[in-house]
Design goal:
The structure holds two protein chains of two kinds. Chain A is α+β, with helices and mostly antiparallel strands. Chain A has two domains: 10-52, no CATH class; 84-255, Oxidoreductase, molybdopterin-binding domain (Sulfite Oxidase, Chain A, domain 2, Alpha-Beta Complex), CATH 3.90.420.10. Helix content of chain A is 29%, strand content 21%. Chain A contains six helices and ten strands, in the order αααββαββαββαββββ. Chain A has a five-stranded mixed sheet. In chain A, strands 3, 4, 7, 8 and 9 form a five-stranded antiparallel sheet that branches. Chain A is elongated and about 85 Å long. Chain A starts with 9 loop residues before the first helix and ends in a 19-residue tail after the last strand. Chain B is an all-alpha fold. Chain B has one domain (23-210): Fumarate Reductase Cytochrome B subunit (Up-down Bundle), CATH 1.20.950.20. Chain B contains nine helices and no strands. Chain B has helices spanning 9-17, 24-50, 69-97, 99-104, 109-120, 134-158, 164-169, 173-200, 203-210. The longest helix of chain B is centred in the middle third of the chain and has 29 residues, at 69-97. The chains are: A alpha+beta, B mainly alpha. Chains A and B meet through α1 and α3 of A and α1, α2, α3, α8 and α9 of B.
């Protein structure tokens, strides 16, 4: 093709376009509906400018973002396949040392007394309501090496051992048709999960880390470990478990983290 | 296509200004994509800062969106629907209308080297904006594939357990983050070159707004 010719002079280019743009605009403005639309758009822009509302702190924008996050909860519930197992890894791939992570520093890790510790079960459950550590240790134990994925992006592989959570729920007479399981911790952290994840085969009420009693920094005496969920959905130092149909929220979730937090 | 190939350039210009070169759906999807891509990249940078892949590289707060990790993720996971839906409409209409075949293909190695040499000599013309040169074709095809890769690697990061095949294709969870980062870098590089080219050929901006 032979379009590589003399360069177009900018002023002729602009004037020829300017004319046709003005012609177009006149045509559009003749149509009253278009004129109204144009005025509305200008007014909306003016209001937005006057109110000084910008994208990141507008209240309506935040409401919209929260709504989208709830919508994403529903999408993730649909995507969640109860039969899909998170990958497991050989012992040689365990991250050492496994990182400590909490909403406070390592010096503030709560000290839970094993002798007086009691796990409270409440809400939609008709079985045993108070469990001691020895009673939990007497239940059938499982162990798995899985990847812990933090919402920040990093990941680490660790080995957790304990009771399959669905097994514990059965023994505690929990209503498995309910919507939520909420979890409260000795460090005042709390979170909640959906029932299908609670019943997932890899969801463990863990009492050990890497073959030894769960150390305080990893959640003594007990952490709920779900390799299908992000780190903040895996609470440590659990002291109370409640089954409910009322949305319980969570420490981070109420500040903006996505509630489902699935992986 | 009916445009004069000889004669007065002004006539040529006027002829062109009456023919719609960028149909409305191209212009609409282009600007939605531009908005979505900017919001995704800026919120993505804020997410990246929570745990940088390369410790030496952090994005200053002034160019990020969301003000903290939770806020950035709210943006990222809301705007992703806009980006993906718009992208599917764009690619779908490109295929259905034949525009992809007509305007972005064929792309030969020979035409690419010819146009690259012409560009480096400063002799690659832009008089006829209804026709893409080989470098433009390559750039637009690369950015389409790159956005597809961004979406797929993003899905692998977001749902690494639920999409095992995607996770494996991306080389595992940690590697999916690296792929996502590299695809973002390609998109940002495209963005800067694209905007620079528009600054050199302002008529193309007019074209993407009015269509002609």
């Amino acid at each position: 093709m032979t379009f590589r010719k003399r360069p177009v002079k900018l002023d002729t280019f602009l004037s020829s376009h300017a004319e046709s743009i003005i012609k177009d605009a006149r045509k559009e403005l003749k149509d009253p509906a278009r004129r109204l639309l144009g005025r509305r758009i200008l007014t909306l822009g003016g209001i937005a400018l006057l109110s000084g509302c910008d994208l990141s702190n507008g209240k309506s924008v935040n409401t919209m973002l929260r709504k989208m996050s709830f919508f994403n909860d529903d999408v993730q519930a649909l995507l969640f396949n109860p039969k899909e197992m998170a990958p497991t890894y050989p012992e040689s791939m365990i991250t050492r040392p496994f990182p400590f992570n909490a909403f406070y520093g390592i010096d503030d890790v709560p000290e839970v007394d094993a002798a007086t510790y009691q796990l409270q079960v409440s809400g939609l459950a008709n079985g045993k309501r108070v469990w001691t550590l020895d009673e939990l240790r007497a239940l059938p134990q499982k162990s798995q090496i899985t990847r812990h994925i933090c919402i920040e992006g990093w990941s680490a592989i660790g080995r957790w051992g304990g009771v399959r959570f669905s097994e514990f729920m059965k023994r505690a007479g929990m209503d498995m048709t309910a919507k939520y399981v909420s979890l409260h911790c000795a460090d005042n952290y709390w979170t909640s999960i959906d029932m299908p994840t609670a019943l997932h085969a890899q969801t463990l009420l863990t009492l050990t880390y890497d073959g030894a009693v769960l150390p305080p920094k990893y959640g003594f005496p007990m952490k709920l470990r779900m390799p299908t969920k992000l780190g903040y959905k895996n609470p440590k130092h659990i002291v109370a478990i409640s089954v409910t149909n009322d949305y319980p929220g969570g420490y981070w979730e109420n500040q903006g983290y996505n509630w489902f937090g699935g992986s | 296509m009916a445009f004069p190939t000889t004669g007065n350039l002004i006539n040529h210009e006027i002829a062109l200004s009456h023919v719609t070169i960028q149909p409305a759906w191209v212009r609409i999807t282009h600007w939605i994509n531009a908005l979505a891509a900017v919001l995704m990249v800026m919120s993505g940078w804020q997410v990246y800062d929570a745990s940088p892949i390369f410790p030496a590289l952090r994005f200053p707060a002034a160019i990020t969106l969301g003000s903290w990790l939770g806020g950035a993720l709210l943006w990222h996971f809301a705007v992703m629907w806009l980006l993906v839906t718009n992208f599917l409409v764009y690619v779908g209409l490109n295929l259905a209308s034949g525009r992809l075949r007509r305007k972005l293909l064929p792309l030969s190695f020979k035409s690419l080297t010819t146009d690259l040499v012409a560009a480096l000599r400063g002799k690659l013309g832009h008089e006829d904006l209804s026709h893409y040169n080989a470098i433009q074709k390559l750039a637009y095809l690369v950015v389409i594939v790159d956005i597809a890769l961004l979406v797929l690697s993003g899905l692998a990061v977001w749902k690494s357990v639920q999409f095992p095949l995607l996770r494996t294709l991306m080389g595992g969870y940690d590697n999916a983050r690296v792929v996502h980062f590299i695809a973002m870098s390609v998109l940002v590089a495209f963005f800067f070159v694209h905007v620079a080219m528009v600054a050199l050929v302002p008529r193309s901006l007019l074209l993407m707004i009015r269509g002609r």
